[in-house]
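Work Package 3 (structural annotation) set out to generate three-dimensional models for the target panel prioritized at the project kickoff. During this period the team completed the workflow that converts sequence records into discrete structure tokens, so that structures can be stored uniformly alongside our sequence database. As a representative example, we reproduce one entry of 157 residues exactly as it appears in the project archive.
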Amino acid sequence: MPATYQWSESNLAGENVTDGITNLNFGSNDSVNLNTTTYPITRGNSSFEKYIRAKFTDTFTTISNMLFWKSAGSYLTGEAVKAAANVAFVTPSQTPNADADVPILVGSALSIQSAAGTTTITSPGYTKYIRVQEQTTGSTPAGAVNTKTFTFQWDEV
């Protein structure tokens, strides 16, 4: 049987973990499955950081070559999504971080490690965290931004 995969998000001081999240919406609140209409990002500000990780369950031998990148969706003027791989959880902040732009090509994708810090996962468990944050400038148009697709790819044996 192949591995089962789901996204997990951690929020709040003390790390409240939610497995099986339904969206990765960015907003002005540190909450999971966020509604952007209720918690919009004001132009010129940043979203709260999102701390996400993959969770693998069921029976498998090895998960390896785990990669993360933005595979679709265009940016508006002054908009960026920042990302860092294999970070430790800290209380999410709305302060703009200095992470690099999330890669847009599989060839430059972020390489993701297991929670143990190795390049493979051999039993059910999590990856290390990926920190992502939406950042805008005063030149970003007001209103909703374009939808983006983030891809997480891995090899399984």
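The chain has no helices and eleven strands.
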